[in-house]
Amino acid sequence: RTAGADPAAFAWGLMNGCRDAAEAGSQAVAASAADPTQLLNLGFTNMQQGVTGGPPGGSTACLASLDRATGELSIANLGDSGAMVIRDGQVVGASAPQQMGFNCPYQLSIDLDGKPGSISPTLAAPYKVKVQDGDLV
Q: How does pLDDT run across 80-100, given as a tens digit for each residue?
């Protein structure tokens, strides 16, 4: 933060960009809303194209989308964020952390000059889990 980057502002900007993409209403966006990896990519792009070009900083990310008709939970995880599904006290699905090395997770980022970092949202690992009533996500 002393260098002019606020990680919280970056994370909020990223999630606001994802929300805006999901709420855009077009058929292409509606299809991508079911694919959290695409939604993360659109959200990061939206944030970069914002009025200020996106706040400098970095963040891991985890997005999920539930298909209520089929019970399929789609997850996109980037870095050491994560999701898991617990059923009857047992883990039935979980994302794995992505790290470049010890304590160095993948992160989306924008530097102080407004340039994106080397990790792309398309590197988010996709997961699919069938959920049931009573599952804990």
A: 999 999 999 999 999 999 999
Which helix (H) or strand (E) element contains residue 132? none
pTM reported for the whole predicted model:
0.87
Tell me the pairing of strands 84-87 and 72-78: unpaired
Do residues 63 and 39 touch, judged by C-beta distance below 8 A? Answer: yes
Among candidate residues 114, 135, 125, the one with its CA nearest the CA of residue 13 = 114
Identify whether the C-beta of residue 39 lies closer than 8 Å to the C-beta of residue 46: no
SS3 per residue for 68-123: CCCCEEEEEEECCCCCEEEECCEEEEECCCCEEECCEECCEEECCCCCECCCCHHH
Pairing of strands 72-78, 125-130: antiparallel
Query: In the chain, what is the greatest distance between 2 CA atoms, to the nearest angstrom?
Result: 49
